[in-house]
Amino acid sequence: MTDSNTDPVIALDGVSFGYTVTPVVEEIDLHIDAGEYVAVVGPNGSGKSTLMRLVLGLLRPDDGTARLFGEPAVDFDDGDRLGYVAQHASAAKSMPITVREVVKMGRFPHVGFGRLSESDWKVVDNAIETVGMTAFRDRRVTQLSGGQRQRAFIARALASEADLLVLDEPTVGVDVESVADFYELLDSLHAEGITILLIEHDLGAVTEHAERVVCLNREIYFDGPTDEFVAGDALGRAFGTAATLVEGDE
Ligand code: ADP
């Protein structure tokens, strides 16, 4: 699932945005290549979700340019290339549909609203198997734990054969035991070449799993390999001096 195109998967150049006249993110330069596993960290209100909305093309930059797979992010409509997993998968909490039906939606960019072929169903069931949810295939998503629900949404992204996975604090509200499994799943998807952009408050998970860390507080304070982030003082500068990395914090 590598990108033959040489464009970065995500390219933000000089991006500033504010909901009012005051910018919430400023002068953001962020390039993410195919196959990278990047985590964005920062305190509450530092602009992480706003940055993600700019990446997804849901917001238009006031200044600068935001591109996805080489196209302006706001015009991007190649839904099958991009899998988005929201916090809590909240939209699905009240949906009276089964895991298989959720994952089936991942095929819609390929088949429109037409019927799924046998091979489409195979992709759906393989995706369910990859995330370890085969036993829950016919269970309604309302009857799943937070971690299981997030897995179902990852499976939907896999069924669409997305090569970019964008996740917004995916383990908030997820049972502690499932969090480690969830990150193992992301590791294996990364090993298969899927590009991952993760917004995460859990610094233990970030430093253990992501290859590259972007530390945000309106501006980017740090962007580089995870080891350098751990060794440096970016965290203190972005979060204030009280912040420290707690060993084994996950
Ligand atoms: P984070 O995800 O890091 O918590 P956000 O991107 O959600 O940060 O928010 C950054 C700033 O933008 C905050 O001050 C927040 O109050 C403000 N903000 C977020 N969404 C909106 C909105 N829809 N309208 C106005 N202000 C907003």
The major pleated sheet works out as: 6 strands, mixed
* Strand order, largest beta sheet: 6-7-8-3-9-10
Helix content: 25-40%
Low-confidence spans: none
List SSEs in N-to-C order: EEEHEEEHHHHEHEHEEHH
How many beta-strand segments? Answer: 10
Task: Note the beta-strand portion.
Answer: 15-25%
Oligomer: single chain
Tell me the Rg in angstroms. 18 Å
Integer tally of domains: 1
What is the CATH topology classification name? Rossmann fold
- What is the CATH superfamily? P-loop containing nucleotide triphosphate hydrolases
The CA-CA distance between the termini, in Å, is: 29 Å
Can you tag this structure with a few keywords?
10 strands; Rossmann fold; 4-stranded antiparallel beta sheet; 6-stranded mixed beta sheet; alpha/beta; binds adenosine-5'-diphosphate
Report on this structure.
The protein has 250 residues and is an alpha/beta fold. The protein has a single domain, classed as P-loop containing nucleotide triphosphate hydrolases (Rossmann fold). The chain has helices spanning 48-56, 99-104, 108-111, 118-130, 146-159, 176-191, 203-209, 226-231, 234-239; strands at 10-17, 25-32, 37-41, 63-68, 71-72, 82-85, 164-168, 195-199, 212-217, 219-225. Strands 6-7-8-3-9-10 form a 6-stranded mixed sheet, with helices on both faces. Strand 1 (10-17) and strand 2 (25-32) form a beta hairpin. Helix 4 packs across helix 5. The protein starts with 9 loop residues before the first strand and ends in an 11-residue tail after the last helix.
